[in-house]
Amino acid sequence: MTSTTSTTAAGPAITGRTAAEIADSVRALVERGALGPGAALPPVRGLAERLGVNRNTVVAAYRQLAASGLVITQGRAGTRVADLAPVAQEGYARDSVLRDVGTGNPDPALIPDLSHVLPRVVGRPVLYGEPVIDRELEAWALAWLTEDLRPTDVRLTVTNGASDALERLLAQALTREDAVALEDPCFLASIQTVRLGGYRAVPVPVDDEGMTVPGLRHALAEGVRAVVCTPRAQNPTGASLTRRRAEQLRAVLADHPYVLVIEDDHFSLLSQHPYHSIIGPAHRRFALIRSVSKFLGPDMCLAVTASDPETADRLALRLSPGTTWVSHLLQRLTHALLTDEDAREVVTRAGRHYAARNADFAARLVRRGIPAAAGDGLSLWVELPAAARSVSEQLMRRGWLARTGDEFLLGDRSDPSRHLRLTVHALDDAEADTLAADLAAAVAAVRA
């Protein structure tokens, strides 16, 4: 069979008569570098005419490519080659001689000591076919989560951290190109999870009271099949939902009971704010995630999720015994720490410490003419009267490495961010005063 070829002035040739041949041709062009990340594929109608095939054949080819993650369909904006360049990650910057105040890390000195509970968690080996959730952890965690949830019929799932829970929740409910509502600015791990899953992120702005009502309405009008919300200590802004805002969001979601609502309450035991949920008592698809990494340490990679029975059943299929279960040693250790008086006292002290140090640094900035207010969480979200990247560059000259708000943005990126996310709780008073002074000087230098 003679292959039909499409050659355009805007790019390389795409060939093929069938959907599989067209998809293979595009794949080959991408692999050879002839089509780079972000490159636009021809419109369906135009490519079909040039190849002499039915429009549905091209549609099927593009659908195959989208399902494999090679391209991203953007509705009227067309279809483009996916950009798999690495996105920003949490944690320390590598190979930097600067003082890093953008890490988002907890204080190692305020993570409970594991050694005194370790002897209590060593027991008989767990074998294939046994329950995937430790019974003592299940009972404790279910009571902890359900005291805050309005729906009464919930099931518990254990995963390897909050990001693992989010990935599994979206995968059991969505297919590629489905729309997901994410807060904007957004937690870096959520951006990465949605991107790698091939879903379409719909940004919902965040203000001082959390996710905004008009933003959620817009996202639902865009056809989102899932909403991811941070009820407390939203990362990076530090915003926590107020009772009033949570009630308003529940009212909006009442007309969409089958949209999956995921609450990532990552700061739970450390938070200085009450928990207000956007999950109404009659909502049909929901999940509340609480991980332990912020207060028991990032290496304690475990999260518990309370969800509706259908969601829990689907999650259980993706957590089969012996293949993808969470280590029972880790589950026992988590339960031992969370029920230990000394460990819980350390967690309580840590939450107060983070809040106090953030408030103290915000006050130092205010005294230097930079309006600032401490939210909740490990870091401080500082609005600047100048572009954050320019201020960050000035801070680097003074020995500081900060994280700009640009990395957390989902929506319009045409205007540079005017925010810095600063992790300052590990600074002593002298260091905090130096950073505040240097930040004020950096802002003045940029504005001059």
From TrEMBL:
Domain annotation HTH gntR-type: ranges: 16-84
PROSITE patterns: HTH_GNTR
GO molecular function, one term: pyridoxal phosphate binding
Keyword DNA-binding part of the UniProt annotation: yes
The keyword Translocase is assigned to this record: no
Keyword terms: DNA-binding, Pyridoxal phosphate, Transcription, Transcription regulation
InterPro entries (alphabetical): Aminotransferase_I/II_large, HTH_trans_reg/aminotransferase, PyrdxlP-dep_Trfase, PyrdxlP-dep_Trfase_major, Tscrpt_reg_HTH_GntR, WH-like_DNA-bd_sf, WH_DNA-bd_sf
Pfam name, any one: Aminotran_1_2
Superkingdom, taxonomy of origin: Bacteria
Family statement drawn from the similarity comment of this UniProt entry: In the C-terminal section; belongs to the class-I pyridoxal-phosphate-dependent aminotransferase family.
The protein's name in its UniProt record: Transcriptional regulator PtsJ
Organism: Microbacterium album
